[in-house]
Amino acid sequence: MLGTLAACGSDASGGSGGSGSSSGGGNGNTWTPNVFLPSTQFDDMCAHPRAGTSDKQGTVADENRWLRSWTHELYLWYGEVTDRDPGAYNSALDYFGVLKTAATTASGAPKDKFHFTYDTAVWQSLSQGGVEAGYGAEFAILPRATGEANTVLRHLRVAYTDPNTTAATNLSRGDEILTVDGADAVSGGTQAVIDTLNAGLFPDTTGESHTFTVRDLAGNTRSVTMVSASITHVPVPIVKVFDPNTDPVGYIQFNDHIATAEQPLIDAVNTLKTAHVTDLILDLRYNGGGYLDMASEVAYMIANTTLTTGQTFEKIVFNDKNPSRNPVTGETLTPTPFFSTSQGFQGAMGRALPNLNLDNVYIIVGPGTCSASESIINSLRGVNVHVYLIGSTTCGKPYGFYPADNCGTTYFTIQFRGENAANFGDYSDGFSPANQPAPAGTLVAGCSVADDFGHAMGDAAEGRIAAARAFRASNNQTCPAASGVSAPLISKASAPSLDTGQRPEVSKPAARLNRIIRFGT
Fold first, then answer.
1. I need a labelling partner for 28 at 20 to 30 A (CA). Which of 16, 130, 199, 362 fits?
2. Cβ distance 457 to 283 under 8 Å?
């Protein structure tokens, strides 16, 4: 989030020295540029085998050989990866960091900004149960205010807290973090300061104690000490109805496409269906994505079934080696439909899903809206549901991957692009409300509105919610003056420039910024 967040091993590059052996051609122990052996030849050959697993004794070079071949087989842009000697890197993380394209998008952003790793045990805990070490707070970086000194690099605000966590007890939405363990969170720019901020904001383990100086919305400062714990995220914290007696409009805050979201989403839609809502405000501003099947469930539960029945939610497109076959499962490629039954994330598969049967949906978005969340937007638009965006430009990730474990590290490299029923999937610079100031991505009807940290999530007076309701009341014609700020993705597993003053973003680990296909389900 601030400077060099490599806690999850992402975007590492370079490498020095060598392990003395290479791979790619010949007998597998000598490097022949642009000649690749099957990755299966190097599966589970580990420098440090794990007890009780299929790991076999190997070397770092063997792990790099697996990465090199695996990338050549599955990476969406494998032809844009410079082939480097795997024996010249003493770390698999270092080698993985260079196995990606260096190309940029039309806006000049990196074409691949989603290349990262996780410790396998940590990934499994987070993806299955939404559990990770932390305090239960999500932080946002806001730009310096007009007229502020250039020495102001960032404003760190609390975006929201998960219920029943230490953060919920000590922090509130809108609080500003001034210092972390004595390091200046506003103006500190040295590497030592950045390291301290990262360590405090993103604890790697439970039981860590860190002290924060916090300023609330009234300008009062206080010292807060929090101890990291195993945090279970609440993916659907707010469900409510605005104007229930006159013109009921539903609201769902949906933060994570994790397995534990399935039943709360079903319950939320049942609640709104009972209230006979006429429209829906779906708040995805902090939802970085997750399971694609769940995104399909959500889209089905929103949309008019005459538009979704028999239609493609999303089809996935792999590299040109695999035009009709899924190279991971070996199956013939078939589109993901709009799922009308539960997919077994929680409880039995095949349960009929409730449906609001709506023609319109107002989706609150921002740079933290990513991947599977963008699939909801794209796929609803692909079947002519009227989608209106309120907020600012989304992260721009029409891509996804199958997580792959090798030697205790789970690797994430872009393997496919998602396209909707209209064959559209080119939004690598994100989706933007129609009046979004430049730079903007793919324009969608709606209003550019800044995030409002002065009001609680779900509050009718919160800026983006109020704008959505007013836009709807104007027959989808009138927006307030554009105020939303566009920004590239910043997460725990990215490495943006040190000056983050113009990069507002919610801090989420990379595992929560994805479009993930489940293998073997």
1. 16
2. yes
Q: Is the pLDDT of residue 129 over 50?
A: yes
Dist. CA 237–CA 255, nearest whole Å: 8
CB crowding 23-61: b at 16 or more within 10 Å, else e? bbeeebeebeeeebbebeebbbbbbebeeeeebeebebb
C-beta atoms surrounding 218 within 10 Å: 5
Q: Are residues 171 and 293 in the same domain?
A: no
Beta bridge partners, 416, equal 400
Length of the chain: 521
User: Is residue 478 exposed (0-12), middle (13-18) or buried (19+ Cβ within 10 Å)?
Assistant: exposed
- The verdict on 295 and 157 lying in the same domain is no
pTM over 0.85: no
Q: Are residues 267 and 342 in the same domain?
A: yes
- Structural tokens at position 360: 């319109």
Please give the C-alpha separations between residue 7 and each of 3, 42, 494, in angstroms, as whole numbers: 12, 26, 9
Q: How far apart are CA 302 and CA 355, in angstroms?
A: 6
pLDDT reading at 127 higher than 80: no
pLDDT tens column, 308-355:
999 999 999 999 999 999 998 899 999 999 999 999 999 899 999 999
